[in-house]
Write a structure and sequence with these properties.
CATH class of the largest domain: Alpha Beta
Strand content: 5-15%
Number of strands: 15
CATH superfamily of the largest domain: Glycoside hydrolase/deacetylase
Distance between the termini: 38 Å
Radius of gyration: 22 Å
Largest sheet: 6 strands, parallel
CATH topology of the largest domain: TIM Barrel
Bound molecules: zinc ion
Helix content: 25-40%
Structural class: alpha/beta
Length: 441
């Protein structure tokens, strides 16, 4: 695979495929005309020298983060001679004053993860190396903002009315099921540690295998939403790394799994599946329930291989792309978009619903290590404000055992407060399958 920045036509095509996934325009002829006007340079983009895209050094790219339209000042990379006006209409020609297409492409495709090769111990791209970290912009959905500029320009120039289908912010609650078998044992130990005998006895007597589901359901009822649960079908360790602590094929787990509507079930493939097609296929079969939704365990995702592996599988929706160490927008967006395959240099059919907030990111000391509720809110309010302004899907991942194990009481409270805050801010709580939500008009 080459790390070459895909050519101009590929960039334009990809950006518009993603744009029309999240934006309405029913006239296909007009869609093609808009795209062709870009390809044929009838719509003019102020581009920069192509060789900057070949740079293996993110700092070279950063040099291009110059002054631009106020909100995006910090996030637009590929620009020169930027004025405060992002587009002009001159002699019946639409002209962008900065390379809007390359900027959108850069973030959405995840190109930085191709040129920066350093990985953490779990083979993941490091947030610390990201352009979002360098610019302090992880909480800014830059692509949503650039899409708004694009919409404004297209609507004005072609006298049409394109709309963002996801302009109203929504919340998608999801839960990765890594721990199941040992929740009861863990809860007993945690109660004993606190010296709470009555609670300990209650757990011993009454805590059933599906208890976490009942607890989760109580929040679903409270906020009128439906969560998507991601299950694992591999319980053997991979080297030193844990996979599931339960054997999904066992009757007691299958009974619970089969009682769930498959539209609300996803697969949580084990360590290494993101780069191993055969292993992934076996695990999909091992779940014994049909699903097309995916999130990799540990959020492992190798952009040079994983998009293609997903494209070749039966999975059509992925929600692995979030930073493990930071909340916010790994691909600069809260909108669904197509994964890009850097091997074939083309758009895949797999829709990514970016992961924005994961519980572990908040509490692990080597990630954010938040201990106080005020700090939690200080951290998430700017993010929520941006989601309110620019729309999209606020995908949250709170692991199932958090809803039960006593030691996560504080985080369960934070979850409840967060949901309450989102409700007060008029977020729509997704109460249908994610597929039907995506396909709505
Ligand atoms: Zn996991």
């Amino acid at each position: 695979m080459s790390s070459k920045f895909p050519n101009r036509i590929t960039r334009i095509s990809y950006v518009f495929e993603c744009y029309f996934l999240s934006h309405t325009l029913n006239n296909n002829q007009l869609k093609s005309k808009i795209i062709n006007d870009f390809i044929e340079n009838k719509t003019i983009i102020e581009t920069i020298e192509e060789d900057i895209f070949e740079s293996q050094n993110i700092n070279d790219l950063l040099k291009f983060a110059k002054n631009t339209v106020p909100q995006t000042k910090k996030s637009v990379i590929f620009s020169k001679n930027i004025s405060n006006i992002c587009y002009e209409i001159e002699n019946k020609t639409l002209k962008f004053n900065f390379d809007i297409i390359s900027n959108i492409f850069f973030y959405l495709s995840g190109y930085q993860e191709i040129i920066i090769q350093e990985r953490d111990s779990l083979h993941r791209f490091n947030f610390k190396n990201s352009i979002q970290n360098k610019l302090q912009t992880a909480h800014i959905p830059i692509v949503n903002i650039l899409f708004e500029f694009l919409t404004d320009a297209l609507n004005t120039f072609y006298k049409i009315d394109i709309q963002n289908k996801f302009a109203n912010p929504a919340v998608w609650v999801t839960s990765d099921v890594d721990i199941w078998q040992h929740i009861k044992r863990n809860s007993i130990l945690q109660c004993l540690k606190k010296g709470n005998l009555i609670e300990t006895i209650k757990v011993i007597l009454f805590q059933k295998i599906y208890y976490w589901k009942i607890k989760l359901k109580s929040y679903e009822d409270k906020y009128q939403c439906r969560s998507c649960l991601f299950f694992m079908s591999e319980c053997r360790k991979f080297g030193q790394y844990n996979n599931a602590d339960y054997e999904i094929k066992k009757t007691k787990f299958q009974k619970v799994l089969q009682s769930i509507d498959p539209d609300f079930v996803g697969i949580h493939p084990s360590f290494g599946c993101n780069i191993n097609e055969k292993k992934l296929r076996n695990e999909i079969a091992g779940l014994k329930i049909e699903t097309s939704i995916n999130r990799f365990h540990f959020l492992q995702f190798d952009l040079s291989k994983t998009s293609q592996i997903l494209e070749n599988s039966s999975l059509t929706i992925d929600s692995s792309l979030g930073f493990a160490e930071e909340i916010g927008f790994r691909n600069g967006t809260s909108l669904p978009f197509y994964l890009f395959d850097f091997n074939k240099n083309m758009t895949t059919h797999v829709v990514e619903i970016p992961l924005i907030l994961m519980d572990a990111t908040l509490f692990y000391p080597h990630y954010l290590g938040i201990e106080k509720k005020e700090i939690f809110f200080e951290k998430i309010v700017p993010l929520i404000t941006n989601l309110k302004t620019y729309g999209g899907i606020f995908t949250i991942n709170f692991h199932n055992h958090i809803f039960v194990e006593p030691k996560y009481q504080f985080w369960l409270q934070c979850f409840d407060d967060l949901m309450d805050y989102l409700q007060k801010n008029n977020f729509y709580f997704i109460d249908k399958s994610i597929k039907s939500y995506l396909n709505q008009d």
